[in-house]
Design goal:
5 helices; 39% helix; two-stranded antiparallel sheet; alpha/beta; 4-stranded parallel sheet
Length: 150
């Protein structure tokens, strides 16, 4: 049985800001007794609506290798600087999100954020090493890692 659901790409980003779409997705996913964990963009409309329905099944996701806008959304990939390629910058961002509950937006403002799971894109040339480094730095900082689902 499927234990969690995470939307992808344009649908993920649209559901993060469109309450009607987020509600329709929740209506279609959480039917009857089957309620998979739902991975959603931290701080989004989708997170708020999902938590209102079932706090226990929502997992707030942050991104190690993406920049954020002042409203908490991800910087669109078509914009310069949307993807973080510098390993040090990504590690610093992850540690700050997890420890302090904030992310620095592209304009310098600090945006509150809830980090329950971290997305690392696997399509970069150094993805595996990058993932290992992020995990190592989290563990070194004394941050406990655990599976989302029991």
């Amino acid at each position: 049985m499927v234990g969690h659901v995470k939307l992808h790409g344009a649908l993920y980003n649209q559901a993060a800001r469109d309450p009607a779409l987020a509600a329709a997705i929740l209506d279609s996913l959480w039917t009857g007794a089957w309620r998979p964990y739902l991975v959603v963009l931290a701080g989004s409309v989708f997170e708020r609506l999902a938590r209102a329905r079932d706090e226990r099944r929502v997992v707030a996701e942050v991104f190690a290798d993406r920049t954020y806008q002042p409203d908490g959304s991800l910087t669109p990939r078509g914009r310069p600087g949307a993807v973080i390629t510098d390993e040090e910058a990504a590690v610093t961002q992850v540690l700050r999100m997890v420890r302090e509950g904030v992310v620095q937006a592209t304009d310098g403002t600090l945006v509150p954020i809830r980090a329950e799971t971290i997305c690392l894109h696997g399509d970069g040339p150094q993805a595996v090493g990058f993932a290992r480094r992020v995990r190592h730095e989290l563990e070194r900082a004394g941050i406990a890692l655990r599976a989302v689902a029991p």
